[in-house]
Write a structure and sequence with these properties.
41% helix; 258 residues; Spore Coat Polysaccharide Biosynthesis Protein SpsA, Chain A; globular; alpha/beta; seven-stranded mixed beta sheet
Length: 258
């Protein structure tokens, strides 16, 4: 039986904190561009914020770049994995760090560190949380979205996965199950972690982002999507995604959750 979160107490107090989790693996060059834009957007909107960059065993100087920025912007916190542990462990580390310093009414945002997710969209996502939504997803499958530079294989995979999950695991308001650019009400994440404990983020690889949604589905969250502008053409370096492994992980996840 679903446990309804409802709108709860919408975050209307501008003093509530925005916690942004950035999983990063060899993203030194991208972060040099993303972090200043992120800071600029949040400061322009006068949003109190903390940014948690989780360096997942990078070898390209990612930690040094983040440390340099943190000296100028103390709201940036660097967390490091000595070795590469993968996306799931990196997201989990970021969640734990963000939630440890959070309070009721705060908002947690996840986004990629490769500069393909544009910070300006955060403002609209936060507004929708303030209006009563529990989860807001930056979606490639709603009117107004734009995608630049994404390989056809990636686009087909995302479309197929979204279609399958909508049929098998429908969540009102959700079309894009795989995009990791999301805003969550902190209270919802905490409730999910209370239920699932250390199994809340249990899937490996990119499928962990889908599984987070499937687990939060049990709480009957109010969800909304905003049109995404995905600038894959701004990405520096190669994609970290193994297409065939991701397909395999997705199929395993479907079988496990059915």
């Amino acid at each position: 039986m679903a446990v309804s979160m409802g709108a709860g107490n919408p975050c209307k107090d501008e003093k509530n904190m925005i916690h942004i989790v950035l999983p990063a693996f060899n993203e030194a060059e991208s972060l040099k561009v993303l972090l200043p834009e992120l800071i600029k957007t949040l400061k322009t909107e006068r949003l109190q914020h903390k940014i948690y960059v989780v360096d997942d065993g990078s070898s390209d100087g990612t930690s040094k770049v983040v440390k340099d920025f943190s000296r100028r912007f103390p709201q940036i916190k660097l967390i490091t994995h000595k070795t590469n542990k993968g996306l799931a462990e990196t997201v989990n580390t970021g969640f734990e760090s963000a939630l440890a310093g959070s309070k009721s009414g705060d908002i947690l945002i996840t986004m990629d560190a490769d500069n393909t997710h544009l910070p300006g969209l955060i403002v609209r996502m936060i507004r929708l949380i303030n209006e009563g939504n529990d989860i807001v997803i930056s979606s490639r499958f709603v009117s107004g979205s734009r995608v630049r530079g994404v390989p056809l294989s990636r686009r087909l995979l995302s479309f197929a996965a979204g279609t399958i999950f909508k049929i098998l695991f429908p969540i009102p308001g959700v079309k894009d199950y795989t995009c990791g650019f999301r805003a969550y009400r902190v209270d919802l994440i905490k409730k999910g972690m209370e239920i699932y404990k250390d199994k809340f983020i249990s899937e490996k690889g990119f499928s962990c982002m889908v599984d987070i949604l499937l687990k939060l589905r049990r709480l009957d969250p109010i969800c909304a999507e905003v049109p995404m502008i995905l600038r894959y053409d701004l990405k520096k370096g190669k994609s970290k995604m193994d297409i065939w492994k991701t397909i395999g992980d997705t199929l395993k996840l479907i079988a496990k959750r059915l």
